[in-house]
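Contributing new records

If you add data, match the layout below exactly. Sequence lines come first and carry their own label; structure lines follow with theirs. Keep one chain per record. Anything else will be rejected by the validation script.
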Amino acid sequence: MDNIIISPSKYVQGENALTSIATYVAPYGSHPLVIADDFVTGLVEKTVVHSFTEANMSFSMELFHGECSQEEVERLQAKANDNDVIIGIGGGKTLDTAKAIGFYKKIPVVVVPTIASTDAPTSALAVLYTPAGEFDRYLMIPTNPTMVIMDTAIIAGAPVRLLVSGMGDALSTYFEARANAASGKATMAGGAPTLSAQALAKLCYETLLADGLKAKIAVENNLSSKAVMNIIEANTYLSGIGFESSGLAAAHAIHNGLTKLEEAHHLFHGEKVAFGTLVQLVLENAAMEEINTVLTFCRQVGLPTNLFDLGVKEIDRNKLMAVAVASCAEGETIHNMPFDVTPEAVLSAILTAHSLGLSK
């Protein structure tokens, strides 16, 4: 199996980076289409218009209607008759819609996240839903976005829970990469992990431990800092390259299983992944020192460490077994662990992680 790493062609991060969007986009096309939802348009429109006007560059803007569906992709694609670059500004569904339009029209894609709550912006993947919001399918795209632009001033102004959720998603990266490397399974990049991808996954974890709490405090005050800059990079780039080119394992599969718990539906993706990481560590019988380090980090920044934190009121083994069974479904990434995993083993790990997460 060949070693493969994939990534965006360019990653830009800085305070007020959006003011230079025309300069960054110009090498890839002369007439971009910018899509953003109503709220984000109100947030960024003046900045975007000023940047392209100052650069004497033609562009057009269209409102994203809120759902990344095939119908919405086709509607916006029809608006992009003469556009040669697609720019998505906003949250995950806006960015995925831009990726899909770029894929179908075969034009460069620039994504501008306004939050750092997941590592999805850098990935060669879009999640499509029905117009009613139900999951439809994954759109596997052969190339990553052409460019990712992270304006840290905008991201620092978003609710702190979103940044913390991104830390939860990023927390799993190193441990899933480590497990995937041990098993020798192929990554989402289609091959074995490179040394560089594994190094980025480890750096992601180290950065979270070093700067996570400091970044949370700064963003609670709607301010940026060096720690915030580092965490945005960890949540987005380090975790994004780390997961896609080093592999997923139990933590994300357990997240998917946790969607069976109605009590946890209010949680963000990264919040459930954080608990999934603890479960994975128990599942692989990691050293207590390592588990305690992860528990301490989660408590510091406010990530769930037990089932009660997820919203569970009473421990129901039948419900938790349903979570375990779903986590072990055929094709789930839990089978990238370097040993056979059964629902019974996952149930045991969930209950053990829960108990460890309760103790102070």
